[in-house]
Automatic annotation (TrEMBL):
Keyword terms: Glycosyltransferase, Starch biosynthesis, Transferase
The protein's name in its UniProt record: starch synthase
Lineage: Eukaryota, Viridiplantae, Streptophyta, Embryophyta, Tracheophyta
Enzyme class per UniProt: transferase
Region (Disordered): 46-69
């Protein structure tokens, strides 16, 4: 390293060579300037003493050069000295910059490492929960197989299932390789665990005919899947039993396999074989019943709509119960759905609870005794008394009946929407519980929606304005955030008063409102709906979308100020629920869709959604909503933000109502 004493912070400009015509040479005394190398050698102006250089005070003639030449040599050496110093300083600066960059790089790597550690810890935590659920399902399936092959009794299997389902107690000591053990070794491991701890969760089995995303015809499919996932997130163990349809997309099933032993069920006076397939759909264990003799029952192009639907689903209901009994499952709750599986109610109580007391000559078709059931207080239809009403049987023979209704209270359902079962529901009204449908708030949440150009929430609504402009740009609408934008998502499921719709649109567009018509029908209902407003489509503020994709669908909810709804009770599309979450007011095409103003309901046993929607948006027409936005914008914004903060997902009221119903059954 070069060491130079008395070096200024700024390197001076090199001295200009003297002009021999103007500069008069003066005697210059030599100074000893040296640089010490790492090896100890001297370097610099005078690295070694020259034999021609003599000590101070000698005559210039002794040096061997003239004064003029000596001066020039010294000035040149000084210039080289400054140049070398400058180069070394530049080198030091470069080294300093490199050191700073290395330090910054080290800090960045440190931050990345800390973030990675945090991410791995989170993955480990999440993975532990997923691994536990996977292990639980694997153990339960192994128990099913052992029961069907006679290795273990149904009673002991039931006790072990209860142990496994209490994950906090039962899974703590299980080795990771337990599922690779032979049946005998696995059973020995399980028997080491005690089932003395109190069971804190429910084992729920849904016997149903639809499940999203496997088979979806109506609202039942999303209801079964949404509720089941919500229940499992709250610590309950849920299974589903359903037919194995020909049209089912089995790619959605994880770990699909056939249960080793064939099981038999009773139907039409004989035992008939069935194959059972098991797998996992969205974290829910599913068992699929596949008839062998009656193989045509579920190998058709449609789920419903055949003359023998009663025989098809009666067979499935009986086969489901037979499978549960023979596999040793003892769930806390059998959850049955609609008329197709309502017969499970009388089957369970009249056959399976008392099956050891029944005589074979009393059985017919699926094993029930028609004379004993064709009675007014059982399955006899209230109006057509020569027929039996299967749905009525489900009500009569169930311990609890959950009615899915978004808008109406228990008393109004019994009085006006019972479909001929008013008397039956009145007798069994203490069984009834009312639950709203939910929606998937993991896929529909504006605060973390990847389809949106900018996310937002009730506390920070800036992103909604960005989404509105993005929607206007996408649809080539005049972009103006102050313009009210109304989205209308429609399908063939509801009838629309075309004349009324045209009047609504004409009145709104005259006020500068923008409209987006979104058709998600599977047929040409768009043409039927929009033909009433065809002349209005020429307006630059009215746009129709055909074949909208998922990203645009999310943007419509986020960019709209109002979502015009065909009905506020929408269990299939769940448009009102999504609209509330995205800060778009759900306004019915006809306000009478909500509870009429003159209707006095003294029974307050209605859902939170019904109370919320009927006290606000449900009573408004589109014209009234526009007046509110124009005249009371601050109050309107508060309504929107309050709505966004409400939780109407599957995890909220819907799940709570069902858990309360299951708890009531347990306490009977």
């Amino acid at each position: 390293m070069l060491v130079v004493s008395s070096l200024n912070a700024a390197i001076p400009s090199p001295p200009r060579p003297p002009n021999p015509c103007t500069v008069r040479p003066k005697p210059v005394k030599a100074r000893a300037v040296c640089c010490l190398r790492k090896n100890g050698d001297l370097n610099g102006l005078y690295g070694k003493a020259s034999p021609n250089v003599r000590s101070e005070g000698h005559d210039n003639a002794d040096v061997g050069q003239s004064p003029k030449g000596e001066l020039e040599v010294k000035q040149g050496d000084i210039w080289r000295l400054f140049s070398e110093a400058q180069q070394n300083i530049l080198y030091l600066n470069k080294q300093r910059i490199m050191a700073v960059e290395e330090l910054n790089k080290a800090n960045r790597e440190k931050q990345l490492l800390l973030a990675r550690i945090k991410h791995l810890e989170a993955e480990k935590h999440d993975g532990a929960g997923k691994d536990t659920l996977s292990l639980c399902r694997g153990l339960l399936l192994r128990l099913d197989s052992m029961v069907l092959t006679g290795i273990i009794s149904t009673g002991e299997a039931s006790d072990l299932r209860r142990l496994i389902m209490d994950c906090k107690v039962g899974m703590a000591g299980f080795p990771d390789e337990i599922l690779q053990k032979r049946d005998a070794d696995l059973l020995a491991e399980l028997r080491h665990f005690s089932d003395s701890s109190k069971k804190t969760c429910f084992h729920i089995v849904h016997i149903c005919t639809e499940m999203e995303p496997l088979v979806s015809v109506g609202s039942l499919a999303s209801y079964v899947t949404g509720l089941s996932c919500a229940l499992q997130r709250k610590g309950h163990f849920v299974e589903v039993v359903m037919p194995k349809y020909k049209t089912m997309d089995l790619n959605e099933v994880e770990g699909l396999r056939e249960v080793e032993a064939e099981h038999y069920s009773y139907f039409n006076g004989q035992l008939h074989g069935n194959k059972v397939w098991t797998g996992v759909v969205r974290g829910i264990g599913v068992s699929f019943i596949q008839p062998l003799y009656y193989s045509s029952f579920f190998s058709r192009e449609k789920v419903y709509g055949y003359p023998d639907d009663f025989e098809r689903f009666t067979y499935f209901s009986r086969a489901s119960l037979d499978y549960l009994v023979k596999s040793g499952k003892r769930p806390d709750v059998l959850h049955i759905h609609n008329w197709e599986t309502a017969i499970v109610g009388p089957l369970f109580w009249d056959i399976f609870v008392k099956q050891c007391l029944e005589q074979p000559d009393k059985l017919a078709l699926c094993g029930l005794d028609p004379p004993s059931l064709h009675l007014p207080d059982r399955l006899q239809d209230n109006n057509k008394t020569h027929l039996v009403n299967i749905l009525k049987g489900g009500v009569v023979y169930s311990n609890k009946v959950v009615i899915m209704a978004s808008l109406h209270s228990k008393s109004r359902i019994i009085g006006s929407f019972s479909h001929g079962l008013e008397a039956t529901l009145s007798i069994h009204k203490d069984k009834l519980a009312i639950s709203p449908c939910g929606f998937d708030n993991s896929a529909w949440n504006p605060s973390k929606d990847n389809f949106l150009p900018e996310t937002y929430c009730a506390e920070d609504m800036k992103g909604k304005a960005v989404c509105k402009v993005a929607l206007q740009h996408h649809l080539a609408l005049p972009d103006n955030t102050s313009t009210v934008l109304v989205g209308f998502i429609f399908t063939e499921a509801f009838d629309i008063d075309k004349g009324n719709l045209k009047a609504i649109v004409r009145n709104a567009t005259s006020r500068g409102v923008q409209f987006v018509f979104v058709d998600i029908s599977k047929n040409s209902s768009k043409d039927r709906v929009l033909e009433s407003v065809q002349d209005l489509l020429k307006d630059e503020n009215v746009i129709s979308i055909d074949g909208v994709d998922e990203a645009v669908s999310h943007l419509v909810f986020a960019g709209s100020d109002i979502i015009l709804c065909q009905s506020l009770h929408d269990p299939v599309l769940q448009v009102p629920l999504k609209a509330l979450k995205y800060g778009a007011a759900p306004i019915p095409v006809m306000p009478t869709d909500a509870v009429p103003r003159h209707f006095v309901d003294h029974d307050y046993d209605s859902t939170k959604f019904a109370q919320f929607i009927n006290s606000g948006f449900g009573r408004m027409s589109l014209s009234q909503a526009l007046d509110e936005i124009e005249n009371n914008p601050a109050r309107w914004r508060r309504k929107i933000m309050d709505a966004m903060k409400m939780d109407f997902s599957w995890d909220a009221e819907c799940c709570d109502v069902h858990v309360s119903a299951y708890t009531a059954i347990k306490n009977l």
